[in-house]
Structures are given as structure tokens and as C-alpha cells.
Specification:
about 650 residues, alpha/beta, 9-stranded mixed β-sheet, 4-stranded antiparallel β-sheet, 27 helices, about 45% helix, elongated
């Protein structure tokens, strides 16, 4: 494998000058795919060329069926050209390459179109590099008898990694660090190793944000090492043309079904709408809004409910990561069909953002009540190329082992990392093989400890109750409050005569008199208004009562028409009551000792869920003793005094 990678990258290095290092991938990746396909189709090319004329004019479906049957693969090429013939005619190389590419079946031609390979070929020709590159690739023996699908996949993945590291783009947009993928893959399969080693095992893996296919590739490698005879189907979708092309090319090179990789926005164009999968992996974009998809997603949510993907709710439009989480869950097989396990990388906000009754909280609550959250692993910071924020792996399953039913495992791996000798973008840390082993062992062991804690699902559920306190006001016609009355909209609508009468009415109330009972104040106001021949309509009475009133704990309680105390909105508060706790008992203990007149408005109670990961692993570190701090300060001062003395003596 190393020899092949070095051979190809030497070709890339020969591009220096006309091409920047960040552009090498746009040349060597599609050329590697082209050379591999050329070698794969070589043995059946004569048969394809023999069949091709006989199906001209036939329906497209019939043509594809006959030609794929002739090629022995899910793709074919009807051009008489191959690499040997291409380099034998340097004069017509550019035109012949176009003709050769046009001979591929549409499912492969699509790869080169998304690579924008035509532009690359034009530039190579313009810079007099096309023949040299094509000739070099023609020398590479990529025939399946020499390089197996697995070996070729490893070569291509290494080239992808090299290309990403040399790219000027933010690598993290399309590339998840390999050791993070390795951890996710091992977590995904850790509890299934025995079942996966049996002969004749058939499994499917899906990545809705496939990028360049790294997660699918690592999963493929892991399972084939575990069981070389496994029948594995890989599925993926991505919206970025270049990433899709690389991913699809990687799957073709591995011998996977070329039609299992789709282009498009997963949230609005689900390419595998009817399919369910055994396993799923995803690293969706962090903190990316879903404004462009909002109409589609909200329409699906309102019309399909739980028959669609977004039944539990939708998150705030500023971050769509939880939409991918729900999408992934929707791809689980039913438990009676064997169930599924999924792993997804998210930032910290899906753990706690959004209050009770909000979209994020409703999603968490549904996942916990459905008993799908198996484990959440906190990763070290500075693990990704494009962000240094905290990230978490959620492991979801609808086929939990008996011991895990009704339980969630939190694993704190935030301090398990190795420092990189040199940073790559925002990436400063990586997971070593030993770090990964430790994390996977904690997950598989399912034992509580310093870095592993086990909780019941309901430990993360709560009710948000609304605490009301009675409205107590006093009324005093001071100049400032009177001016506030005249600044209100209701009073500004009065005629000049009415406004004059109102001011006279308020003056009649006097600046010395204070009312602590609303009914008494309103009665006094009406009497004063009658003396000034001012009609008191309901909006005016309400405005004057509100603007002249001021919160006063010594005043009487304001009551409604039924005699019930009215709540003071300015004193309104909320409390989160743990799910297992009785609300009345909680209020008696936590609220009434400090506000004896408070009550709970049960009609406003909301149910929610949050997972305060950091709180559960917080360890109090007491401050240093003052004596130690004083001692250190005195030592520093002594050193400074000594330095000053030396300066003075010079």
C-alpha cells in the first residue's frame, strides 16, 4: 500500500508550479479512480465492446442490464480506449480522454462530473502536464489480482488524508479525524463482536453526512478484519459535490454498490427514504442553521408527525445538528427486526439547550422516554480541524442489553488525549490507541467509576413549574407617576378637554394620600373624576391604576372577581423539579420557607429534559490556604527588594 501511495504522491509533487499543493488532490484522486476502473474492467472489456452495438437503440434500462451483465460489475465503459491506447496517442490525448470518460455508465461518469475533472484536464493540457501524468498512471498496476479492493481502499483513503492535510480549505468541513472515527466505530460494534464474527453475517451501515466517506471506510475495515467473510453494504449521502465524488469513488474502488452513495441534502432529499440500517454513523455540521430547509422540515413535522422523521419536535433554526440525530434514529430497524445502533458526534448544546417545552428539550425527552440513549462520551477539546469546542459522541440504540435498559451511561474522556507535536488548524489533540481502548473498555464494561457514571433515564427529566406571588400595590399620585400616566398610549388618545380633566382629577387625589387597597383607590379615583366631570371608561381606569401603582409588600393583596389572589408578573419565577420528586413536597421545602404566600400555577407546568454532563463529573478543588499564598507573595517581594537593592548599588 505504501509503495502505491508514494508512487501516486510523487506524481502529485511533479505538478508543483502550475498547481498549488492544495490542488494536488483534484488531479490524483480522479486519476487514481480512473486507472483503477480501467484495470477492473480490463478482463471483460472485449465482451462489453461486443455487446454494446447489439443494444444500441434499445431502452436505457435494457442497455444498462445487458452491459452490466457483460462487464460483470455494476458499471461499464463502452469506449474502445484504455490507458495503454490513451498514452499511445499523445497528440489526441485530451480529446481521447473526453471520449473515454463519456464511455462510462452514468453512475460512474457522475463521479468525474462532480470532481469537475474536465476543468482539471484542461488545466493539465494548458500547462503541458497532461501526457506526463497520464503516462505515469498508466504504469501503475491497479488490477484486482495485484491490488485487492481492501488494499485499494486503503490507498485511496491515504490519498484523501494527504489531500485534506494539504488543502487550504477547512479540512474539518469534509474530514473527521481518523482516530475519532475509529473510536466511534469501535463503540458501535463493541457489544456485537461475537455476533459479527459468525459466518454468513449480513449487515448494513449508513452515514447521512458521509463527506468523503471516512466513517464508512473505517467501519468497513474494522468489520472485515473481524470477519473477512461478512457481507457488508455501505450507504451514504452528502450535499457537497467534491466530497460526494470522493466518497462514491472510494466505494467503487472498494467494490461496493456504486448506487449506494447519493448526492443531495439529507434533510430535504432523503435518498434512502424507505430503507432501514443495522448501524449508522454521522458527524453533522456544528452550529449550522437550517433556514434554507425550514419550510420543508416544518411541513414534514406538522403533516407527518411521528410518521415522519421530526415527530418529537425541531430545534432552534440556528443549529440543525439535532435534525440529523432524529434523521439517524428514523433509519433504525424495528426492534423485532433486530434493531439498530447509531453513533453521532455533536457539540455541547444538544445536551442542555432549550427550556422545557422547547424543541431541543422535547427531542431529548422523547429519546430518553423511548430508552434510546445508550451512552454519551465527552471528548477532549481541540480534536477537530475546524473547531476547538467541546464535542460528544451519542450512542443510540433500540436494542439495549438487559442491564442497560432504562439506563444512560456518561463517560468523561475529556482528559484522555495525546498532544500533537504540531497543530493542524484547530486540532491540537488526538486520541492514541491506548486512549481509544480505555474509552471502549469503559463503555463495554458498563461499570460506574470516576470517569463512567450510570443514570436512570428519568434522572435527566424534570418539570418546570411556575411560582406565582400575590400582586400587592400601593397608589400614590406623585408628580413622576402622574407624568407616567400622561405618557401612556391610552391617555394620549384623549381629547384636550379630557386630558385637562384627568390632570385635575389626579391633582384632587393629592400627593399626601397613599392607598394600599386597589378597590379603595379606584373608588377614590372615580369620585375625583366625577367631580371633574370626567367619564371613566375601563381602559382609562386600567391605565391609571397600573401607572400610579407600585409594588408594596405592606399593601393588601389584589384579587380577581372570584376573590382569588392575582399574580405579580414581576415576581413570577420558575423552578425545575426533578421528575421523581413530588411537586408539593418540593415547593414546601424549596419555596415556601422564603415566600410563604407563593403558589404554583399548575396550568403552566412544562415537562423537559437536559443532560448536564459537566456537572456530573465536577470535582471541587479547594482554594490554596491563605498562609501559602502569603508565603509566596512574601517570597516574590523579597526577590524584588533584592533586585532593587542591586540596582541602587550600581
Amino acid at each position: 500500500m505504501v509503495n502505491h501511495v508514494n508512487f501516486i504522491w510523487n506524481i502529485a509533487e511533479s505538478l508543483r508550479g502550475p498547481f498549488k499543493p492544495s490542488e494536488y488532490g483534484s488531479v490524483v484522486l480522479p486519476f487514481t479512480v480512473l486507472r483503477r476502473l480501467d484495470a477492473v474492467l480490463a478482463d471483460t472489456k472485449a465482451q462489453v465492446l461486443k455487446v454494446a452495438p447489439t443494444v444500441n437503440g434499445a431502452p436505457e434500462v435494457m442497455q444498462q442490464m445487458k452491459l452490466t451483465e457483460a462487464s460483470g460489475h455494476q458499471f461499464y465503459n463502452t469506449s474502445p480506449l484504455d490507458f495503454a491506447k490513451l498514452v499511445a496517442d499523445p497528440q489526441d490525448l485530451r480529446a481521447n480522454l473526453s471520449s473515454y470518460l463519456a464511455g462510462f455508465s452514468t453512475n460512474v461518469r457522475d463521479i468525474f462530473e462532480r470532481f469537475e475533472f474536465d476543468k482539471t484536464l484542461n488545466k493539465l493540457a494548458e500547462k503541458n502536464k497532461l501526457f506526463a501524468v497520464t503516462e505515469k498512471f498508466a504504469q501503475a498496476d491497479f488490477h484486482p489480482r495485484t491490488v485487492s479492493n481492501i488494499q485499494m481502499g486503503l490507498v485511496f483513503e491515504e490519498l484523501i488524508r494527504w489531500a485534506n492535510e494539504r488543502s487550504n480549505e477547512t479540512a474539518g468541513d469534509h474530514y473527521t479525524p481518523r482516530e475519532v472515527i475509529s473510536l466511534m466505530v469501535q463503540l458501535l460494534f463493541a457489544l456485537d463482536d461475537d455476533a459479527l464474527t459468525k459466518p454468513g453475517v449480513v449487515r448494513s451501515i449508513y452515514d447521512p453526512t458521509a463527506g468523503t466517506g471516512g466513517m464508512l471506510s473505517v467501519a468497513d475495515e474494522y468489520l472485515r478484519r473481524l470477519n473477512p467473510g461478512i457481507q457488508l453494504s455501505l450507504y451514504g449521502q452528502d450535499y457537497n459535490d467534491a466530497s460526494y465524488a470522493i466518497c462514491k469513488a472510494d466505494m467503487v474502488i472498494k467494490g461496493q454498490d456504486v448506487n449506494n452513495i447519493a448526492l443531495g441534502d439529507t434533510l430535504t432529499e432523503d435518498a434512502f427514504e424507505e430503507k432501514k440500517f443495522d448501524y449508522g454513523l454521522s458527524n453533522p455540521p456544528f452550529g449550522v442553521d437550517w433556514k434554507d430547509q425550514r419550510a420543508f422540515i416544518e411541513d414534514e413535522h406538522s403533516k407527518l408527525g411521528f410518521n415522519g422523521r421530526f415527530g418529537p419536535g425541531t430545534p432552534t433554526v440556528s443549529d440543525g445538528a439535532m435534525l440529523f440525530l432524529l434523521h439517524l434514529v428514523s433509519k433504525m430497524r424495528r426492534p423485532e427486526d433486530g434493531g439498530s445502533r447509531m453513533a453521532i458526534v455533536l457539540n455541547g448544546s444538544p445536551l442542555f439547550s432549550g427550556g422545557a417545552g422547547g424543541g431541543e428539550s422535547n427531542i431529548r425527552k422523547w429519546l430518553l422516554e423511548s430508552d434510546m440513549v445508550e451512552a454519551i462520551i465527552g471528548l477532549p477539546k481541540d480534536m477537530f480541524y475546524n473547531t476547538g469546542i467541546s464535542t460528544y459522541i451519542w450512542v443510540l440504540s433500540n436494542r439495549k442489553e438487559k442491564a442497560r435498559e432504562g439506563r444512560v451511561q456518561l463517560i468523561d474522556a475529556r482528559e484522555l488525549f495525546t498532544k500533537l507535536p504540531k497543530g493542524l488548524g484547530s486540532k491540537r489533540n488526538e486520541l492514541s490507541v491506548e486512549n481509544i481502548r480505555t474509552i471502549v473498555e469503559m463503555y463495554a464494561g458498563f461499570e460506574p467509576g470516576e470517569h463512567s457514571k450510570i443514570f436512570r433515564n428519568e434522572d435527566f427529566l424534570y418539570r418546570t413549574i411556575t411560582i406565582e406571588r400575590p400582586l400587592k400595590l400601593s397608589w400614590h399620585a406623585t408628580p413622576d407617576r402622574i407624568e407616567a400616566v400622561f405618557e401612556s398610549k391610552a391617555v394620549q388618545k384623549l381629547s384636550e378637554a379630557e386630558a385637562t380633566a384627568l390632570r385635575a382629577t389626579l391633582d384632587r387625589l393629592g400627593t399626601q394620600m397613599v392607598w394600599t387597597n386597589r378597590a379603595e383607590f379606584q373608588n377614590a379615583f372615580r369620585q375625583a373624576a366625577a367631580a371633574e366631570r370626567l367619564a371613566v371608561h375601563a381602559p382609562l381606569l386600567k391605565t391609571v391604576t397600573m401607572e400610579l401603582g407600585e409594588q408594596d409588600d405592606a399593601a393588601d393583596v389584589c384579587r380577581d372577581s372570584k376573590g382569588n389572589p392575582e399574580p405579580d408578573a414581576s415576581l413570577r419565577d420558575t423552578e425545575n423539579v426533578p421528575w421523581a420528586e413530588d411537586i408539593d413536597e418540593y415547593v414546601a421545602r424549596e419555596v415556601l420557607p422564603y415566600a410563604p404566600s407563593a403558589w404554583v400555577d399548575l396550568a403552566k407546568t412544562k415537562e423537559g429534559a437536559e443532560i448536564p454532563f459537566s456537572r456530573h463529573f465536577y470535582q471541587y478543588v479547594p482554594p490554596r490556604p491563605l498562609e501559602d499564598i502569603d508565603r509566596d507573595l512574601e517570597s516574590v517581594l523579597r526577590e524584588l527588594r533584592g533586585m532593587l537593592t542591586e540596582v541602587e548599588q550600581r
